[in-house]
């Protein structure tokens, strides 16, 4: 027998179209289809997360429009199933409460998906942190290099978990007169440094060489660039250096240095002036003036430091008497100056000087030789002012030197050979960014990189940036309105309070193998709440303040022996609704079982009382003074159906 409150039962009269749609939305078949679809989607998302990482599953499933739509359709089904049972009698209170709880739970889940925060905070010991890094969102920050009273322009975006296909770009708009457009995005990128010829002639020399082992196999290729004070690269125990000579006479010190045997115990200083070279024994001229002829600058060897290191006030001091890092402090008296110009000369770094500090090149060049500085394994190159390249290799009897060019192969130490493949007299560095494909199941890799087009003052420039990279994450561009700095990092959310890390503690497992737990002792400073108190954050005891929860997740070892704590910061705006919905579901289920038990007992008692004893003809049932009408019989059956 059909029930007037059951949407699945047919009606004799033609129903209103809206009522038909409402009954279809409330149908049990639709509910089963949606629940099965949701279960399949969640299983698929779990597989995606295990294979490609959490961000991949978030992007393609949990925070996608279609998934939110699936949850919304399930909510419509639940709401319709509740509405079609109007009026809500006492016997249906459990059913209504349960379905209302499901709606509240879904609303809380959607709110968490859309507005929840899952970030990170890194604080070094003794430092204070008041911003949260959103690791699933990126940010480009552009600012004028000079203080112009203009706030930095921040462009935030979510690029997704995969490389962008060719042709895809993202216009970030304009802020503060700066327009930003993203042309390429690489989810994981490695950097390759190369050197190309500098047409302006302002760059220093650069060369590319391959080291070939005794068996003819290559041990790797290296770029070597010679800056103002030379460049250095290492392959195993061998070092390779490239220097640029500003005076042609410096070649003599490079190819024919003084022999260690018979050299002065404090070394020999070579002075180069106007194409001429003069050498002086340091012991004989320490504290004295050396002359290069009439009209030439005068030089005084002021101090000898056998183990030089930087001291306070920008001065050098000696750490012991062993000749570990021999250095000379010099005073150069120029004809047009009364005060001497301070200069230095290192035996291990012969072309290093203080010209950059004085912002003016000294007309005299120095090359300091010391018997304690032995020829190092490897090869050294020197470019002379005429553009030619010379090389020297350490041997048993000192250095062996020669002029080299592209395509030459020369013997080096330890039985290796060096092949010179490229050389530029003037070069500029070019950094290439290559996409990296992670292996299946690999969750972390190199940071992301973007190709950005920046327009400022009517001039557009393109630059590659690598996220959170000390070298390639920040660039300064020249624009018609002045230098413009642009950086690429994670989006930051400022907090109304701050955490100062006093101490980070680690406890080791028995036997010292691995870390057992982490804990951070922090100072919570909140001017608004007038809080300035110490707090402890450990792996099992998070810190909750305001709407944020801070979990201890790891640490970083910083230079100088200090450590930085890594805190996971979470904000769940739908937490209250999810808790409330769960509670409503529990209460509703309880009432459903309670109501069903009472109805079943009453119906059973009624039926037992109706048919348990025999009746005489035309005699009403026991306990009743009138026969049960068909409508009452219909209502009892309908109540039993709903109870079931």
Number of strands: 34
Q: What percent of residues adopt helix (DSSP H or I)?
A: 10-25%
How many separate domains? Answer: 3
Strand content: 35-45%
Shape: elongated
The largest pleated sheet is described as: 6 strands, antiparallel
Characteristics:
disordered C terminus, 644 residues, 5-stranded mixed β-sheet, alpha+beta, disordered N terminus, 40% strand
Topology summary:
Layout lengths: L16 H9 L2 H25 L1 H9 L2 H19 L9 H23 L1 E8 L3 E17 L8 E5 L12 E6 L2 E9 L2 E9 L8 E7 L5 E8 L5 E5 L2 E7 L5 H6 L12 E6 L2 E6 H4 L3 E2 L7 E8 L2 E3 L5 E3 L8 E7 L7 E6 L8 H4 L6 E5 L8 E6 L5 E7 L2 E7 L4 E3 L5 E8 L2 E9 L13 E8 L2 E8 L7 E6 L2 E27 L6 E12 L4 E8 L4 E3 L2 E10 L5 E9 L3 H37 L18 H14 L1
Helix pairs in contact: 2-3, 2-4, 4-5, 5-9, 9-10
Structure characterization notes:
By secondary structure, this protein is of the alpha+beta class. Helices cover 23% and strands 40% of the residues. The chain has 3 domains: 17-115 and 576-643, no CATH class; 118-188 and 439-571, no CATH class; 195-429, no CATH class. The strands form 9 sheets. Strands 2, 3, 28, 29, 30 and 31 form a 6-stranded antiparallel β-sheet that branches. It has a 5-stranded mixed β-sheet with strand order 9-10-20-21-22. A hairpin with a 6-residue loop joins strand 29 (482-508) and strand 30 (515-526). Mean pLDDT is 84; it is low at 1-13, 622-626 and 630-644.
């Amino acid at each position: 027998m059909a029930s007037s409150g059951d949407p699945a039962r047919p009606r004799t009269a033609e129903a209103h179209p809206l009522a038909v749609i409402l009954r279809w939305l409330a149908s049990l078949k639709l509910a089963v289809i949606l629940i099965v679809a949701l279960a399949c989607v969640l299983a698929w998302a779990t597989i995606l997360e295990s294979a490609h990482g959490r961000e991949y599953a978030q992007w393609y499933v949990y925070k996608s429009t279609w998934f939110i739509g699936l949850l919304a359709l399930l909510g419509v089904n639940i709401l319709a199933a509740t509405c079609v049972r109007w009026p809500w009698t006492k016997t249906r209170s459990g059913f209504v409460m349960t379905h209302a709880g499901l709606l509240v739970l879904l609303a809380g889940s959607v709110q968490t998906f859309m507005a929840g925060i899952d970030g990170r905070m890194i604080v070094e010991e003794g430092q204070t942190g008041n911003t949260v890094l959103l690791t699933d969102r990126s940010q480009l920050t552009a600012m004028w290099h000079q203080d112009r009273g203009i706030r930095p322009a921040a462009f935030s975006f979510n690029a997704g978990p995969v490389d962008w296909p060719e042709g895809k770009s993202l216009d970030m708009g304009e802020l503060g007169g700066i327009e930003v457009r993203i042309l390429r995005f690489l989810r994981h990128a490695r950097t390759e440094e190369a050197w190309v010829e500098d047409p302006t002639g302002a760059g220093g020399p650069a060369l590319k060489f391959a080291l070939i082992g005794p068996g003819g196999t290559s041990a790797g290729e290296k770029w070597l660039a010679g800056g103002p004070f030379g460049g250095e690269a290492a392959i195993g125990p061998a070092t390779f250096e490239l220097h640029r000579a500003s005076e042609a006479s410096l070649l003599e010190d490079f190819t024919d240095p003084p022999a260690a045997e018979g050299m002065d115990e404090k070394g020999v200083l070579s002075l180069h002036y106007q194409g001429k070279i003069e050498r002086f024994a340091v012991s004989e001229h320490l504290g004295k003036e050396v002359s290069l002829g009439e009209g030439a600058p005068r030089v005084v060897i002021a101090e000898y430091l056998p183990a030089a290191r930087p001291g306070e006030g920008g001065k050098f001091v000696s750490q012991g008497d062993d000749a570990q890092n021999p250095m000379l402090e010099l005073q150069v008296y120029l004809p047009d100056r009364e005060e001497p110009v301070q200069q230095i000369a290192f035996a291990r770094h012969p072309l290093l000087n203080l010209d950059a500090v004085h912002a003016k090149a000294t007309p005299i060049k120095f090359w300091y030789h010391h018997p304690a500085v032995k020829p190092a394994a490897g090869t050294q190159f020197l470019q002379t002012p005429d553009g030619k390249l010379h090389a020297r290799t350490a041997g048993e009897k000192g250095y062996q030197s020669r002029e080299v060019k592209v395509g030459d192969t020369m013997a080096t130490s330890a039985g290796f050979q060096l092949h010179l493949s490229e050389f530029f007299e003037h070069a500029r560095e070019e950094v290439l960014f290559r996409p990296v494909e992670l292996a299946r199941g690999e969750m972390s890799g190199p940071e992301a990189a973007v190709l950005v087009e920046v327009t400022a003052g009517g001039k557009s420039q393109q630059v590659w940036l690598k996220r959170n990279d000390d070298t390639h994450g920040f660039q300064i561009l020249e624009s018609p309105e002045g230098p413009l700095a642009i950086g690429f990092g994670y989006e930051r959310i400022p907090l109304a309070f701050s955490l100062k890390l006093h101490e980070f503690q680690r406890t080791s497992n028995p036997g010292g193998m691995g870390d057992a737990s982490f804990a951070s002792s922090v100072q919570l400073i909140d001017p608004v709440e007038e809080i300035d108190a110490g707090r402890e954050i450990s792996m099992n005891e998070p810190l909750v303040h305001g709407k944020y929860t801070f979990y201890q997740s790891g640490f970083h070892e910083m230079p100088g022996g200090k450590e930085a704590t890594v805190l996971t910061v979470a904000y769940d705006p739908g937490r209250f609704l999810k808790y409330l919905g769960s509670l409503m579901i529990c209460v509703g289920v309880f009432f459903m079982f309670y109501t069903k038990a009472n109805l079943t007992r009453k119906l059973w008692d009624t039926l037992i009382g109706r048919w348990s004893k025999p009746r005489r003809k035309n005699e009403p049932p026991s306990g009743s003074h009138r026969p049960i009408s068909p409508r009452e019989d219909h209502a009892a059956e309908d109540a039993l159906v709903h109870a079931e």
